[in-house]
Amino acid sequence: MHKKMKKFLTFISLLMFFSGNIYAQEHHTHEHSRNEIGFSGGGLYAFGHREWGGGLHLHYFRTLGLHSKWSLGAGFEQAWVDGSHFNAGAGVKYQLFDRLSISALPGVSFIAHRKTDTHGTHTPRKTLFTLHFELVYDIFHWEHFHLGTVLDYSWEKGDQHAMIGIHAAFCF
Predict the structure, then answer these.
(1) C-alpha distances in angstroms, 155 versus 23, 44, 65, 69?
(2) Which of 52, 61, 63, 107 lies 20 to 30 A from 92 at CA?
(3) Contact between residue 59 and residue 76 where contact means Cβ atoms under 8 Å apart
(4) pLDDT tens for the 172 residues of the chain, in order
(5) What structural domains does the chain harbor?
């Protein structure tokens, strides 16, 4: 598992590094859509558990105006590490540059940890406040479809994790 994860993270890192050079000299103008439905998936590391896993993130954002850099939206995240973490939140996205955006989504995390005791394995569940941040760099734009890389960080009391992966979005 660790060799595959290292290869995946190396691939994503190289993609992020070389994509900046590919597009550095180009200047695009394209019409920005008001709505975005995005999906991210990648390798996830839970700092408190010191464990690798996988993560998926789905979000919807709508800009505050036709040429606004600000958007409001909601997102959901599923993390598979030491059991299961499911986050739901609402928040903002800001378009830093044409292809680079950052979002912050406070919300609720629903956690089910695997525990083993003398009676066997059981899954205690709890609900916690969470903060989710996402940094997205769109490498490719094809009409209404964007594809790029994502760096994602989530915090909740007693746990935090980061994910690096692929981001795809449909804008309309």
Answers:
(1) 33, 13, 30, 25
(2) 52
(3) yes
(4) 567 666 666 666 665 555 554 444 444 555 668 999 999 999 999 998 899 999 999 999 999 998 999 999 999 999 988 777 899 999 999 999 989 999 999 999 998 766 666 666 656 778 999 999 999 999 999 999 999 999 999 999 888 999 999 999 999 9
(5) 2-19+36-171 (2.40.160.20)
Pull the structure tokens for residue 110: 């629903």
Task: Give the burial class of 93: count Cβ atoms within 10 A of its Cβ; 0-12 exposed, 13-18 middle, 19 or more buried.
Answer: buried
| CA 12/CA 121 separation, integer angstroms | 36
The DSSP bridge pattern shows strands 100-112 and 84-95 to be: antiparallel
Q: How far apart are CA 63 and CA 65, in angstroms?
A: 5
User: How many secondary structure helices (H) and strands (E) does the chain include?
Assistant: 1, 10
Contact 153, 44 (CB under 8 A): no
pTM beyond cutoff 0.70: yes
Asked whether the beta carbons of 148 and 134 are under 8 A apart, the reply is no
Q: Which residues pair with 130 in a beta bridge?
A: 107, 156
